[in-house]
User: Fold these one by one.
Assistant:
Number 1:
Amino acid sequence: MAIGFLLAAYSVVANDSLQTLGTYLSSNRQRTSKLVQMAFVCGITIIVLLLGWFLNGGDPAWGRLTVPGREFPLPEDFSWVYVLPPIAVLVLTQWGAPVSTSFLVLSSFKPGNIDKLITSSFCGYCLAFVFGLAAYGLGMWLLERRVYRSTLEDHNLSRVWYLLQWCSTGFLWSMWLVQDLANIFVFLPRTMNLFSMLFCTLILCVGLCFLVANGGGPIQSVLRSKTNTSDLRSATVIDFFFGLCLLYRAFLSTFPLSTTWVFLGLLGGREIALRIKEQEFEYVFANHASGSLSKVLGNDLFKAFIGLVVSLLIAIVIQPLASFIGS
């Protein structure tokens, strides 16, 4: 259980950092010291973890593992096979695949919930795709065109944008924690005392510091292939819109979903809208050389599909394997 938690604490956050901290890390690589970034991210993490633990009577995962009728129980005989999912996440992350950690980790504990996970995640993807397509197609493309055409240096940008970006990142990171802490704490008891919670929070913060120091890791390549995502203004809007999608889904249901699919849906709708506007108004975005639309989006979907297949295979195999070992 301890090894599973440690592996999940790093592998889940490392893979999902693409969605939550990716734009923040990309746009602040040469602007803000890593120590300040670490303090900011860890501060929000501490607040969200301890607040959720307090409000949910000692439950570290904001109640998403104990939804009546759709819970993810802790196995009575916890064997080494349950460590395989976070190891798979770690391997896929090094490959740069935006795998759904919800599918890969949670479905291994209760394969019967796979259909609910897929349905919830697919609805999240469609919601984010339509939202991204509408928002950028109807008006936000004007900001992206201005971002590309702007000749201002970073230090000449309005300080308001710096404040907005940090606020949007904090908002998004807190929403992601509420949704995806279940993928990490599924390895531990469903209720924890204060000392255990503080120790787990410390472990997560150490992993986050390593992640920030590493610049996000290989998974960042998915984000850097999209238009203008390294610009502070574009990153601010992406973070805020993604946070809104997660907040809306949190109100709809307390059942976990793949935040990776939600993020890919938002980026996909955004990219299609920007490419359409590019053709209409005959201007070129900063990242046009990254490849055709079908190549950019197809590569993301292919890697996500591979991650889903691996998740399903592990979920199908892990329970019979655990029963065989137990017998």
Note: The radius of gyration is 20 Å.
Number 2:
Amino acid sequence: MNRRNILLGIAGASAALVGADKARLAATAPTDQTRAITGELLIAGFSGSNAQSPSAQALADQIRSGAVGGVVFVKDNVGDRDDVLGLVRLFSAGAPRRVIVAIDHEGGAVQRLIEAHGCARLPSARQVAVDHTVAEAQAVYAEAGRAVARLGFNLNLAPVVDLENAGNPAIGHYGRAFSGDADTVTAYAGAFVRGFEVSGVCCVLKHFPGQGGAQSDSHEWAPDISAVWSEADLAPFRRLISAGGVDVVMSGYSVLRTVASDGRPAALSREIVTGLLHDQLGFDGVAMTDDLDMGAVGYGFARRSAIVQALQAGNDALIVRNRTNYDPALPASIASWMSEALADGTLSMDALSKSAKRVQKLRNKLTRLT
């Protein structure tokens, strides 16, 4: 082969490589569809406790553009009453659809909104079950729901539906579970959900599939509950879902090898989210992750991996606090990761579209309630 033919061959090969690279980039680039789906599924956090926070303002811009569909407030985001109202107005102004505005309002140790915000202190779940009948509890939670709704929140990341276990450092220690008896938990969790809903606030059952027996805190590490979990832990979820009126179920980050043999935390396990929650229990509402940045996930998975695995598992809504390793372009990053996973077959557009429709159904209900 002469020099001219060699050069022509090299040029042709280079052109083919460039063409293949362009095709790969085109196949994995975010599309309008993946960006729209990200905007439905993502519930993002922010830094700061007032509307002047640059992080809050950036998130508000993303909400207005349709790139994000929900916001979660954590303890550090809650300033005084005017600050809270200012932030809710910021996130809602100019939004193209109903914004999901979420907060933890369990009572006891987990209550972000207090008297200074116009919200009476709620007893812990354990104390409510001791001191109140189911009907009385529903009235208590209805009043709490009215106060939360007045501030503009429409999704309460509660109640805890785990069974009481005093050795659990994150739940039992603080009295966050109603009881160790599944019937009692079912009755009082149902009263919690009904009370808040009549006041215009939807609720989230957590932490599926039941991690009351965990002996470590999933905020720090994924607890293995395989040896202590039983069908009794699942019973309150099963009964409440069967009774109807459950809009959202949040999976935790416990490891349950008897169901998920690969040892993935519950929220990242297809066997648990799709197989157990959606298929076996027949739940057709929104399957939600706990914060994908918390320790149980963060120590073992990069954010990209955690998000793709959460979607692959069958989750419909993703909570990402976005405080550690803050990504100002988080929605665009997720849309890119989603596109890449679609291109290699890890995710399917059909499943993602179904997830988006479930979240849209929740938004429609929030609109009707307010």
Note: The two ends are 77 Å apart (CA to CA).
Number 3:
Amino acid sequence: MIGNRTVKLVCVMVVVICLWISPVFAGPSLDAWKANFDPSGAKYKCIVSNVSHPVIKGVYAGFAIRDELWKRTNGQIYLDYKPFSMLGGEVEVLNQLQMGAIQGMGVSSVAATNLGPRFGVVNLPFLINSFEKLDKFAGSGQLFDHFMMAMDHQGIMGLDITGYGNYGWATTTPVKSIADAKKVKFRIAEAAVNQLNYKNWGFNPVVMPWPDVPVALKQGVIDGLDHTPMVCNITKKFEVAKYFTQLNYAQGLFIWIFNKAWFNSLPADLQKTFKETVHDVCAKIRAETVQQETDQIAKAKAAGIEFFKLSDADMATLQSQGDKTHKAFAAEINKLYPGDTYRPVNFIEEVQGFIGYSK
């Protein structure tokens, strides 16, 4: 039987190999975001992953945290940020993070549920589904703090969130109704909440890691994406999928998580600075994301992408069917763990009441 030490060693070796071979193969360049300092003298280093494109404000946050952390710690901590799926898909990178092979991750909220089911509360349809509701949730105090404890029992700490817009459907054929949607093979993330939600909606989802999407879309393996207009435009998915149906059923989030053992190895003063830096940068980036979505939708429309909205009746149907997802996933999201200091009887109901969710 393979022990934890062996598994950890293998994970470390995989990351080292990925970092070593990444310059060999043509891939996205990080030159545009190169640090304006020499990190070689840093006393502490953390490798942090993200799957997406740093033109997205919520992804760029990793570079902003890197630079601000360097400044505030006087060059003691270097955050070595790896976006563009440089270290692989999110599920495999989550495993690397848990084992300590890397130290941090800006993980999408949809993938985060694999190690922290409580994170799934933000994926529930028509709950936290606007920038205003997201700001309200982020400022909720103990509710948000409890949310960020979702992976604590896995040895992973959550610090804060950035966003990437409102979820809808990018498709290769127009989707103007539920009937149209039922003909589409939608790519969805590797997340239990999303799979359950699409089942309740009666659609045809294809679970797929994000790095596999471009080829699958071009080859017709999928003909739709469950994602946000900002991401679809910036990552050029609109070059194939020329239509977008605006549902605004959930907010796309990146949750900034870190290996607890690594974080706890830092001196107390640097731990404090680290947390404050992440919180300050994330708050600034969330504000910028609101305008970025507006700008990216305008750019997409100018490039010929057609946007649609479903009828009020169809939207009411999706919300009614989606409420089944709330109920079905409640036990997982409400589950408490030894490290939880806030112990609500029903976390989902508290969030629903605070946000003003109507069934």
Note: The chain has a mean pLDDT of 92.
Number 4:
Amino acid sequence: MDLSLLWFGIVGFLFIGCFVLDGFDFGVGMALPFLGRDEIDRRVMINTIGPVWDLNETWLIVAGASLFAAFPEWYATLFSGFYLALLLILLALIVRGVSFEYRHHRPESRWRSWFDGMIVVGSAVPALLWGVAFANIVQGVALDSNHNYTGTLFDLLNPYALLGGLTTLLLFFTHGVVFISLRTDGDLRLRAQRLAVRSGIVTIVVAASFLLWTNLAHGKPLSWILAGAAAVLLIGSFIANFRAKERGAFSLMAVTIAVAVLSLFAALYPNVMPASNNPANSLTIANASSTPYTLTVMSWTALIFLPLVVVYQGWTYWVFRKRVTRASIPQPTSTTVS
């Protein structure tokens, strides 16, 4: 078996896990100003992801570590060339995590509002920039003969990449709002369903435009098939949500994101970082991978531990599967502004 090809698939799987799981908790964070009418609503929304948001982010850590070990050339080019964008993602994740922990440490409403705002920003920035980053990876960037990125941050903010960022932003937002409807009850659940309908319409249009552009410019037969499947699944999720079938809507949205990411990896193959200025400078699965010995050791490690991670994550979601209600949230100690 070609281990470099296997690890291309494993890295794709890890990023799918990151986008599906981190995606909905980014969406919950972004939805705070739209659905949180009072402090109890906001506490309910945050509590829906409270037990799992940090576990979800481990997928990003594992994906980054796997990329570093399996494809060091890809990792070096990506993290040096996209340094500022990835630094912004890291800072946003730090701000978001701190805000979850500190918002309840003082009773003043201004204190909570400040940290709620940072949760929104800390959720929206990664949701946008991950789409920008992956769109640039698929489209290709300027690389020299040593595989160093020769462009600037502003070169990464091109129309195609910005459309990719808007796509992930809207997909994650809608994914999160559907998750809120799945995990809450009463008026908040109904408002989340209505918001998911409105955001779903925009998401379908933007995501379809991005996938169409991707495949017209870089598509292969498999990526076209996967993009079409993602479009059908996204419409199915919208219909399920419209009919108040939130469990089906959430499941279909999760599969939509997974298949859409697969479509991007299919369009990227066999490259891992195409060079837009000179195809000879492109990084491919073959020239970016580690030695066979390294990949062999990593494969045995993944075979042992990756199933354990998946089982543990599934068990965690099963334990915290019940809906979060307003009755389960203590009344705030103060609502004064100071």
Note: The first strand starts at residue 271 and ends at 273.
